Amino acid sequence: MVDIKEITKNALANKGSFERIKRVMRRAERGNKIVLGYLGGSITQGSLSTTPETCYAYLVYQWWSERFPLAEFEYVNAGIGGTTSQFGVARVDNDLLSYHPDFVIVEFSVNDDNTELFEETYEGLVRKIYKHESEIGILIVNNVNYVNGINAQEIHNRVGKYYDLPCVSVKNSLYPFVENGEIKRRAITPDDLHPNDVGHKIISEIIIDVLEKIYHDIDVTQIDIPIPKAFTRNEYEASIRYQNDNYNPVLNGFEIDYAKQENIRDLFKKGWSGSKIGDNISFYIEGTGIAIQYRKTINKPTPIAQVTIDDDGNEMILDGNFSETWGDCLYIDTVRVHGKNKKHKVKIEIIENNKDDKSSFYLVCVIGSY
Question: For the whole model, what pTM was predicted?
Answer without folding.
Answer: 0.96
